[in-house]
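Methods: example folding runs. The two proteins below were folded one after another, and each record is reproduced exactly as written to the output file, sequence line first and structure-token line second.
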Amino acid sequence: QQHLQDEVLPKFHAACMVCLEEEGSFGTTNHYFDSKFREDEICPPAFIQKVLSKAQAIENYNSIPASKLQSNLERWLNEARQEVASSTCHADLLTNQKKRLFAAVRAHFDVEKKTFVDNILKKTKDILIQGRKDWIDRCLLRSDEILQAAGEDEDIKQMREDLLNRVERLEECMSLLRDVPLPSNDQVTSEPEN
């Protein structure tokens, strides 16, 4: 525990602070940004809410045949799409641009959050988990006290050596027995002469 508090945690804290500073100064945009931005364009949250509000009218989905549920779902999706498209078409240019800008900001925030969390998880793995492994390898596995406690008792050690010697002697006996010629079938089946 002392190793954790003295060495690992300060190193982890410093690495997390570096991640935080880096995120504040530059951030990253990547395919995740594009997918999040497209996600809002293709299926905006308002569209999802409209479909869900229409679906709430049904109390028990299990009692409806699949074909009817499928046709209802198709109808709801089309109605929700038309409502969202209609509200977008009837809005002025400034309102539509605000919505697009808001979607871009939200996508950028999602990217920054994911990147920051990914970096912190990487630092956690690199410093905390690897630090624990290093501590086990360096401190625990080389500790004289642990090595002495992990050693074999003298009685067990002596018994093991005696058994190994016995196995060796038995193998020598078996080897000698293999070298003894066996009588042939003719000698075994023939009767002794008088």
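Second run, written to the same file directly after the first:
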Amino acid sequence: AEDKLSVATKKLQEANAKAEKQAKEAKKKAAEKAKKEKQQAEKAAKELKKKEQKAKKQEEKAKKQAKKKADKAAKELKKKEQKAKKVAAEKKAKEEKALKKQQQKQKEIDTAKRIAERKAAEAKAKKLKEAEQSLKALEMKKKNAIMSEKSSAASIKSADAEIAAAAKKLAELKK
């Protein structure tokens, strides 16, 4: 029985040694595998970092180019706006000059009209005054003719006709 126990113990020890050896080998393989995977992960991380840096550089380059284009476009737009303002200012100045010229001409026309109207009114007033004086003179002549005993009916009729003509002329002038 002791032999069986010692054989079994020996077998157990051999099995434990074998299992320990296998565990060590498995542990070693797992460590190597983990080391390999770690190296691959580090390599992939480095490549990713390089790609990120490259992408960042390209993005910065694109931003610079876009800013350059935007600045150029803004500069051109500003030039166009200034040119448009200048053209508009020149156009406005021409329009104002033309308007002033037109206003001056209209002022001259209005002044000439007023002068002509005043002269016409003065001439009409003068004719009216002359007609009134003529009428008064004729009426006086009639009175004198009536008072004069020497006067005949014919001279009174003639004076009446002259007065009627003068009165008619005066009425026309008053219109």
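Comment on the second run: The two ends are 171 Å apart (CA to CA).
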